[in-house]
Amino acid sequence: MNDEKLQATFNQQAASAYDSQWARLAPFRDALHLLAAAVLTGLPAEAHILCVGAGTGAEIIALAEKFPGWHFTAVEPSAPMLDVFRRKAQEQGIASRCTFHAGYLDSLPHGEPYDAATSLLVSHFILQQDERAGFFRGIRERLRPDGWLINSDLASDVDASHYGALLEVWMRTMAGADLSQEKLEQMRTAYRRDVAILAPKLVGGIIASAGFDAPVQFYQCGLIHGWFARTSQGVRQAGGPA
After folding, report:
1. pLDDT band for position 16 (50/70/90)?
2. Which of 21, 24, 51, 223 sits at a 20 to 30 Å CA gap from 238?
């Protein structure tokens, strides 16, 4: 899916209703945020975190509550989604700790490197594997030599005999978000055409190819998988991103 199509897709999701639409599936999100916070607990008290594809800011709000000294840069191509997060950040009293960037990562001005980055349910929209590796490389280049990545994506071996059964359970779960039958069928079509659902091992390999150590899968719930990784030892020994 190209950048323009991806941005249009999220703009069409009625940003003001996005959170309420998916509220019934919040346990997926909350469990991922809980584990991600555990992975990142050792970061400095005033760490700077890059959130790519921040959406309405769910992971930032969760991390900001647990780590009151952290600062966040929210990168989000959908201006309506970012506006929702900006309002929520003001309500939560964390707006002063946030930088809001409407656009893609490559348009974010370069500055001091980040201690960690999150990319939650983003990279599976990049269909070409070399471009997907480039996406992670762009994140790695923004990190400190010892920086961390938290990534999650839809992933599965779609050629495996069990995939059909897993997909059916997943679609029943999605129906819990009050999606119409038409919307569910659109989702099925999107999974075949507009989402790169790859085997978890392959996703891990793509991340590693971008300059990270071998990723550790630390989360799975249905089709959602999560990995953490650090910038590779070679990058760290070189004193910074290549």
Report:
1. low
2. 51
Whose CA is closest to 166, among 121, 225, 227, 228?
A: 225
Which residues span the domain enclosing 25?
3-237
Question: 198 has which bridge partners?
Answer: 155
The per-residue pLDDT for range 147-205, each reduced to its tens digit, is 999 999 999 999 999 999 999 999 999 988 888 889 899 999 999 999 999 999 999 99
Which residues fall within 8 angstroms of residue 62, CB to CB, at 6 or more apart? Answer: 30, 33, 37
- Radius of gyration, CA atoms only, the chain: 17
Burial class (CB in 10 A: 0-12, 13-18, 19+), 42: exposed
pTM of the model: 0.89
Query: Looking at the domain assignment, is residue 94 inside a domain?
Result: yes
Burial class (CB in 10 A: 0-12, 13-18, 19+), 44: exposed
Helix (H, G, I), strand (E, B) or coil at 55: coil
Domain count, the chain: 1
